[in-house]
């Protein structure tokens, strides 16, 4: 199973030898053994270490250690899984340098092999520690994703949106937001070190105006309240949206980090594995270099003619291999295109489905059958509905416009228990909210224009006095992983009475063209 694949471009002082020395040091630390970096650079058929692991390497360097270009190298380190008997882990590090003064392409690949189908223990997503050492000591090029944690604020939001929608972007962006306690579910710097070379990590500061940012970048590319959103590169048509994967808050860092890494590598492993410099690739390049060298040394004799024939045969085989590679690339491109079209179809169906589906946080019983619906209408016509009945009726008739959260349902239930007697008034206010008010905002009118439908006595854009921290918390509600502070409210009555007073706290979500209601019941303390 392919667990991790990465491709880095490095400019180490000392060239490829520096990277090979780091590989030798890393293997030595893992096995508590000494690994000679010079011998590793020259090529090792198979070296068994004292813990049972094996190390091998291939290189295009010739016998006199004179480096020829392009220079290729690959080391393979294989060991048993300490936790799962019958499973073996293999890490490969490949290098390619086209000329002495050029950067070094470094590919890394981690995979597992099982001895049979009876080895069924799940594989935990991870990345070799060697990656972090390479980044620290080998000068990666500036274009490498994840070299530093970036920040998303209201000021940087336009630039962030441009980066997200940049057609040339070929790496994911992982957006991490702060929790309700102004902390991150996982340290952004730790996450960056895990994803370096694969994805950029962007943090949303705790004090950032997330609603203002959302208005700029859109809800698809945003995260709230400790959620983590992975935004992938654009697929298919240039006008298409970038697909994203949202992980909701509530998970610990030990669970969250592997899940994020798995989400990212699920999309990056395959293309990175295609760029991997394997031992087989190095061996083929070395064979060509050796034949060319022997032909040059033969100097035109019979042996030279024979070697030339071998060289031609090798070149023919190489051309056929390259032709097959091109064919495979074409199949991969066609596969990618089909997958893009498939994903686009899925996204379209999801979009249509969202138009008919209630939100996850809405009560599951908010879609009454015809008979209960008739009872609700009859109660309203008689002028004696309960607040729950009014809420259920309006949510049924205007499910595409209003979203009643579970907190709204529970507050209505509390008022009914207290003998709520203003059902007709509640019905009138909610009906205006779902019709005239909603239509005004949906048509692009301002809040000032929309609120006129209620008159001056039944609507308030905010509270009459400053809210305490507790008061603000009471008016903060969770909606699809983000916090909404709801100060806009409909009102009737001023008594501290469950029976005669009504407050409906809500917020307009522009990108969904919906009104989200968090509380429908008694007056909330300041």
Topology diagram in text:
Layout: E1 2-10, H1 16-31, H2 37-42, E2 44-48, E3 54-59, E4 71-80, E5 87-97, E6 104-114, H3 130-137, E7 150-151, H4 157-165, E8 173-177, H5 188-195, E9 200-204, H6 210-217, E10 228-234, E11 242-247, H7 253-274, H8 279-298, H9 302-356, H10 370-382, H11 387-397, E12 402-404, H12 406-417, H13 423-442, H14 447-450, E13 459-460, H15 469-474, E14 476-479, E15 482-485, E16 489-492, E17 502-509, E18 514-521
Parallel strand pairs: 7-9, 8-9, 12-18
Antiparallel strand pairs: 1-6, 2-3, 3-4, 4-5, 5-6, 8-10, 10-11, 13-16, 14-15, 16-17, 17-18
Polypeptide structure, described:
By secondary structure, the protein is an alpha+beta fold. The chain has 4 domains: 2-137, Alpha-D-Glucose-1,6-Bisphosphate, Chain A, domain 4 (2-Layer Sandwich), CATH 3.30.530; 150-250, Glutaredoxin (3-Layer(aba) Sandwich); 299-355; 370-521, no CATH class. It is 41% helix and 21% strand. It is built from 15 helices and 18 strands. The protein has helices at 16-31, 37-42, 130-137, 157-165, 188-195, 210-217, 253-274, 279-298, 302-356, 370-382, 387-397, 406-417, 423-442, 447-450, 469-474, and strands at 2-10, 44-48, 54-59, 71-80, 87-97, 104-114, 150-151, 173-177, 200-204, 228-234, 242-247, 402-404, 459-460, 476-479, 482-485, 489-492, 502-509, 514-521. It has a 6-stranded antiparallel sheet with strand order 1-6-5-4-3-2, sandwiched between helices. The radius of gyration is 32 Å and the shape is elongated. The chain starts with a strand and ends in a 5-residue tail after the last strand. Mean pLDDT is 84; it is low at 355-369.
């Amino acid at each position: 199973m392919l667990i991790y694949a990465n491709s880095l471009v490095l400019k180490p002082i000392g060239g490829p030898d520096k990277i090979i020395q780091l590989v030798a040091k890393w293997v030595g630390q893992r096995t508590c053994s000494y690994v000679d970096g010079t011998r590793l650079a020259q090529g090792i058929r198979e070296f068994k270490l004292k813990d049972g692991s094996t190390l091998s390497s291939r290189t295009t360097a010739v016998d006199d250690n004179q480096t020829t270009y392009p220079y290729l190298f690959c080391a393979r380190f294989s060991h048993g899984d300490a936790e799962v008997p019958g499973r073996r882990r293999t890490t490969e590090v490949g290098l390619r340098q086209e000329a002495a003064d050029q950067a070094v392409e470094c590919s890394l690949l981690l995979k597992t092999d099982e001895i049979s189908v009876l080895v069924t223990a799940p594989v935990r997503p991870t990345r070799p520690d060697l990656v972090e050492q390479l980044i620290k000591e080998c000068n990666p090029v500036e274009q490498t994703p994840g070299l530093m944690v970036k920040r998303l604020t209201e000021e940087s939001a336009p630039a962030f949106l441009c980066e997200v929608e940049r057609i040339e972007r070929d790496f994911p962006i992982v957006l991490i937001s702060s929790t309700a306690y102004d902390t991150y579910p996982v340290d952004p710097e730790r996450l960056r070190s895990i994803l370096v070379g694969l994805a950029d990590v962007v943090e949303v500061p705790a004090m950032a105006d997330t609603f203002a940012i959302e208005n700029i970048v859109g809800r698809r590319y945003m995260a709230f309240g400790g959620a983590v959103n992975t935004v992938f590169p654009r697929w298919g048509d240039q006008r298409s949206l970038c697909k994203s994967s949202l992980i909701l808050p509530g998970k610990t860092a030990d669970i969250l980090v592997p899940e994020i890494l798995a989400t990212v590598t699920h999309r990056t492993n395959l293309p990175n594995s295609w760029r991997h410099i394997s031992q087989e690739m190095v061996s083929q390049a070395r064979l060509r270099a050796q034949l060319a060298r022997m032909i040059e040394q033969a100097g035109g004799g019979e042996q030279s003619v024979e070697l030339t024939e071998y060289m031609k045969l090798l070149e023919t085989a190489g051309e056929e291999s390259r032709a097959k590679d091109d064919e495979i690339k074409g199949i991969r491109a066609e596969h990618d295109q089909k997958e893009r079209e498939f994903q686009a179809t899925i996204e379209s169906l999801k979009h249509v489905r969202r138009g008919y589906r209630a939100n996850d946080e809405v009560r599951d019983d908010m879609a009454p059958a015809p008979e209960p619906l008739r009872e609700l209408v009859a109660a309203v016509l008689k002028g004696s509905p309960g607040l729950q009945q009014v809420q259920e009726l309006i949510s049924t008739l205007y499910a595409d416009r209003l979203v009643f959260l579970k907190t709204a349902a529970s507050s209505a239930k509390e008022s009914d228990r207290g003998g709520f007697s203003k059902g007709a008034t509640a019905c009138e206010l909610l009906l205006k909210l779902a019709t005239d008010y909603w239509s005004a905002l949906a048509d692009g009118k301002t809040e000032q224009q929309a609120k006129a439908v209620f008159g001056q006595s039944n609507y308030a854009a905010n509270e009459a006095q400053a809210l305490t921290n507790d008061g603000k918390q009471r008016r903060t509600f969770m909606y699809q992983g983000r916090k909404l502070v709801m100060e806009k409210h409909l009102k009737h009555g001023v008594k501290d009475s469950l029976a005669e007073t009504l407050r409906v706290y809500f917020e307009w979500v522009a990108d969904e063209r919906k009104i989200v209601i968090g509380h429908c019941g008694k007056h909330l303390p300041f």
